[in-house]
Amino acid sequence: MSTDAEALNMTAYEEAATVEQPEAKQPGQASTPPHAAATSMVPLYRDPSDVRTILSLTVAGIVLVIIVLLLAGVLIYKVTSSPPLVVVDRTREGDRVVFMNGQEVVAGGVALTKDRPGDGAKRSAANIFAAYLYKIDPVTRPDDLERALKMMVPASAVELMRQMRLDLEKQRQERWQSVWEPQITSIDPTDPYTVRVLGRQHITRVVKNEAKHETRQLAFNLKLVFDSQGRADRNERTGFLIADLRDFHIISDQQQVPSGSEADPATQRQQSGQVLQP
Questions:
Q1: CA–CA separation, 141 vs 200, rounded Å?
Q2: Do 253 and 274 meet the contact criterion of CB atoms below 8 Å apart?
Q3: Most CB atoms closer than 10 Å: which of 11, 105, 165, 183?
Q4: E strand or H helix at 130, and its extent?
Q5: Contact at 8 Å (CB) between 125 and 234?
């Protein structure tokens, strides 16, 4: 190994000396070692095709990385975004798209829109709640009361049960049965989240082993709030909870309002003058 290295160095030295003779040494100028002169005279070159290949591979790698990032972004967007809703009405005449990509398609006078509980849902919540409270069936009474309480804001449910405790005990002792007949359910014009309810309750009860029948009208207002869970089982799929039952009045039979009348429940309460907590 050492002999080859020495031969190689000697060869380089001889070639450098042959190609270019060193200039005459000037007084005071340091001499250049022969091996340094030989090294400085050997140029380094890169093949142009090799350079072009490296540049092409670099550009191709950058483009590939950009494409992968774009595909990853599209994939993440598709995975996280909700799929488009397409509603197709299948009839004997053929299929007809009525809702597509969040856009309403009106067909045959019918339009499908996003669910927005409105006045109809408020009136439905009031009627269902009133039926649970005032339609008394001894077989289903515990379940009906439980459903009514689930439709209320928790604090309001506790307060309602506190006020109804004595009435519920009386109904149990007298074995009440009743049929609830809703008459007027309307939205208060001064408060869109207050529903006025007027209905008739037909009661059968046992007093001293004697069955007695009684009919009375009930008028009250229900304050509603929007349920953050939307249409859920607890609000009977209406989207609203009962925040308060207020202005509860009993109207005597002599002053009943015919079913379907547009009379204001507040006016009827003023005529009767009878007030009873639920």
A1: 18
A2: no
A3: 183
A4: helix 119-134
A5: no
Closest C-alpha among 207, 232, 48, 203 to residue 138: 203
**Token pair in block for residue 2:** 């050492």
pTM value is: 0.55
Q: How many Cβ atoms sit within 10 Å of the Cβ of residue 47?
A: 8
**Beta carbons within 10 angstroms of residue 202's beta carbon:** 14
Distance CA 245, CA 157 (A): 10
Joined together, the tokens standing for residue 49 give: 């095709």
- DSSP secondary structure string, 159-209? HHHHHHHHHHHHHHHTT-EEEEEEEEEEE-TT-TTEEEEEEEEEEEEEETT
The phi, psi pair for 238, rounded to 5°, reads: -95, -25
Strand partners, 210: 207
Tell me the pLDDT tens digit for each residue of 164-223: 999 999 999 999 999 999 999 999 999 999 999 999 999 999 988 899 999 999 999 999
Give the whole-angstrom CA distance, residue 53 versus residue 132: 82
What the chain holds in terms of domains, given with CATH numbers, is 119-272 (3.10.450.230)
Residue corresponding to tokens 């299929």: 95
The residue with tokens 């005032």 is 134
Calpha distance 206→252 (Å, rounded): 20
Residue whose entry in the numeric block shows the structure tokens 């349920």: 227
What are the angstrom distances between the C-alpha of 60 and each of 49, 64, 65, 68, 116? 16, 6, 9, 12, 52
